[in-house]
Design brief:
One of its GO terms (molecular function) is metalloexopeptidase activity. This protein is an alpha/beta fold. It has a single domain (28-316), classed as 3-Layer(aba) Sandwich (Aminopeptidase), CATH 3.40.630. The chain has helices at 33-46, 59-75, 137-156, 176-183, 221-230, 256-261, 289-308, 310-316, and strands spanning 78-79, 85-91, 97-107, 116-122, 128-129, 132-133, 162-168, 192-198, 208-212, 234-237, 266-270. Helix 1 runs antiparallel to helix 3 (137-156) and helix 3 (137-156) crosses helix 7.
């Protein structure tokens, strides 16, 4: 995730979320053992030192991309383009050019409609600084591994609608990858009903996973409240628009911003900042595995929910054609 800026006003905020349930009230994660094992292995590999921090345009980014391509082929996801790769050119904040590459795949829906659900996570991170590797286990190997887990479950039990899986590059360098995707989409934007964005799922130090988007798209609220009631982690709704505006609003904090700017509804799942956020200590060993497996199970359930309700969401969002 790009840097979040927190401005404290000193005024109390009216928080928009469901009351927290105790850990004893929450069911256990429902992922089967093989998915759980692969989930953790994907995070471990993507955040290992030999990925050199996965900076966009770097050798580490290329290594991560090669690994993800092998995983997508093993799962059985089909490429959207002739290959999975969508290359793009960009410049750093200092004006230096670099080449970025998204990976984009698809699982075709079992139904006859042409509406599309886009689920994405950025695979890049910060690279190295002063000889230290920023491994980005939570940010965002955790989201990428959960995206692969969603693909695994959809391959076993096909979605009703086409699902596009976007592994975005250069989120940390200004969200260049997702912008390149939306500027040259493989299907018309009118067919993209909503975006599910996964960015930082692994380190809910208070045991909390958050979902943003309902203040902008109120028709998602009841659906996400229902998801929160049965989620294996404490899921809270907020960090979007009021009362977060000017304090800790995540609306522009990750790749979902670019869908929102194009009036495509989003639901963004993530955790609040922790002491290792954007530091070289964001390592695999710091991820609490039980929480992370529960968070992954929650976003898998969310993907199922949005796929099931995609036609109704399109109607509510005024995206009917």
């Amino acid at each position: 995730m790009i840097a979040r800026f927190l401005f404290l006003t000193g005024a109390p905020l009216a928080v928009l979320f469901l009351p927290a349930a105790s850990a004893q009230q929450k069911p256990q994660a429902t992922l089967d053992a093989s998915v759980q094992q692969q989930l953790l292995e994907d995070v471990r590999i993507l955040s290992a030192d030999d990925m050199v921090g996965r900076l966009a345009g770097s050798e580490g980014g290329a290594r991560a991309r090669a690994y993800l391509t092998r995983r997508l082929k093993a799962i059985g996801v089909e490429p959207v383009y002739p290959t999975f790769e969508q290359a793009f050119e960009a410049k750093s904040r200092q004006g230096e050019p670099y080449n970025g590459v998204n990976l984009v795949g698809r699982i075709r829906g079992a139904g006859k409609g042409d509406r599309v659900l886009v689920i994405g996570a950025h695979y890049d991170h910060l690279g190295t600084h002063e000889g230290q590797i920023f491994n980005g286990a939570d940010d965002n190997a955790s989201g990428v591994a959960a995206l692969l887990a969603i693909a695994q479950t959809f391959m076993r039990d096909n979605p009703q609608h086409d699902v596009i899986f976007g592994f975005w590059d250069a989120e940390e360098r200004g969200m260049r990858g997702v912008s390149a995707f939306l500027d040259a989409p493989p299907v018309p934007l009118s067919r993209m009903v909503m975006n599910l964005n996964l960015d930082m799922l692994g380190r809910g130090d208070k045991g909390e996973l958050w979902v943003a988007g309902t203040s902008h798209y109120p028709f998602l609220r009841a659906r996400l409240e229902g998801l929160a009631a049965t989620a294996p982690v404490t899921l809270k709704l907020g960090h979007d628009a009021l009362p977060w505006k000017g304090t800790d609003d995540w609306t522009d904090g990750s790749d979902h911003r670019e869908f929102h700017r194009r009036k495509i509804p989003f639901a963004y799942f993530g955790v609040e900042d922790h002491p290792d956020y954007h530091k070289p200590t964001d390592d695999f060993a710091k991820i609490p595995q039980d929480f992370y497996k529960g968070a992954a199970a929650t976003v898998i359930d969310a993907a199922r929910l949005f796929d099931r309700d995609l036609d109704a969401i399109a109607e509510a969002a005024g995206r009917s054609r």
